[in-house]
Amino acid sequence: MPDPLDLIPAAFERQKFAIARLISVFEDPRPEAAEKRKLILEKMQSSGKSRRGVFLGFTGTPGAGKSTLVGELANRFIASNPEKSLAVLAVDPSSHVSGGSILGDRTRVRFSHGEDRLYFRSQASDRELGGISRTTFSVLRLLYHLFDVIIIETVGIGQSEIEIQQTADRVFLLLQPLAGDQIQFMKAGIMEIPDSFIINKSDEKEAAERTYHALRASLQLIRPGDSKVPIFRTSAITGMGLAEVLESFASMIAQRTDPASLDASLYRREVYYFEKWVKDELGRQGLRMLTHLGGARELMDRAGGFDGAQKVILQSVHTSFERLESAVEKSLD
């Protein structure tokens, strides 16, 4: 296998093979992969070629048409923006019985094979709650440097799917006509998170109209200070409302002019996900260890970022196990 660092120039040219190989490093849970990720990101950041992409989260219940809509939006975005690029990272549900995943979003998102400005990647959720997998954010840290827009399409698990709020710059919640009445829309959780709502399949005009008014009335009660939250009515089949959604993409990109503030925003997400990684891997004892080391932010600063801090924690755990093993052997002698 080639050295991952040698793949970076090809990845900046959006060669799909190189990008896929690099993503494999960012999905690798082994301790030695942390150092590779650190070196890759350092080289990309110093190259002067970083795109600093915007993260757009698309969530919603199964059947709302997320994959079809995302595919149509992606193709239209590329067609109307010849200098831009876009990647889709789609998370599919894993079986709680076998652990496997169909990765069915591949069948619904259709990109031209010859278009290097579009990239699609599926991930299995690995039975994680929250709508994304445990390696989604790690991969996004790579795609951030390669594409102008990165769409994260979540599993679609419903009202508990809130992890996307910590991941995306803007969250779109997809609903379908007659997906709920006003009481359903007022329930806490997912309804409090989106920056924008999309009522998809709105070619069913009468049902979509009723859903729109129920949703608008609900938002006035549960988000009174945010009564002007956008509600788009779309149809991937007829093209209805897609231009308006794409305008919101363009508006976000136009506002992203300060590289330092963009990197700082990504860093804040890294702090959150590093703490989450420690908790997921090591539980309460891991969080106590992290506190002893000065907390996530201080450790990341001292260790050279997210991956350097991961390496420190993994080495600390390895050393602790060796000491424990030695103590157990002495006690048994």
Work out the helicity level. 40-55%
Overall 3D shape: globular
- By CATH, the topology of the largest domain is Rossmann fold
- In N-to-C order, the SSE pattern is HHHEHEEHEEHEHEHHHH
* Helical segment count: 11
Question: What is the average per-residue confidence, as pLDDT, rounded to a whole number?
Answer: 85
CATH class of the largest domain: Alpha Beta
**How many discrete structural domains?**
3
Number of strands: 7
Strand content: 5-15%
The helix/strand class is alpha/beta
CATH superfamily membership of the largest domain: P-loop containing nucleotide triphosphate hydrolases
CATH architecture of the largest domain: 3-Layer(aba) Sandwich
Describe the largest sheet.
7 strands, parallel
- What is the CA-atom radius of gyration, in angstroms? 21 Å
Poorly predicted runs? 94-102
Q: Kindly, what is the distance between the CA atoms of the first and last residues, rounded to a whole number of angstroms?
A: 45 Å
Characteristic terms for this protein:
seven-stranded parallel beta sheet; 333 residues; 12% strand; single chain; 48% helix; globular; Rossmann fold; 3 domains
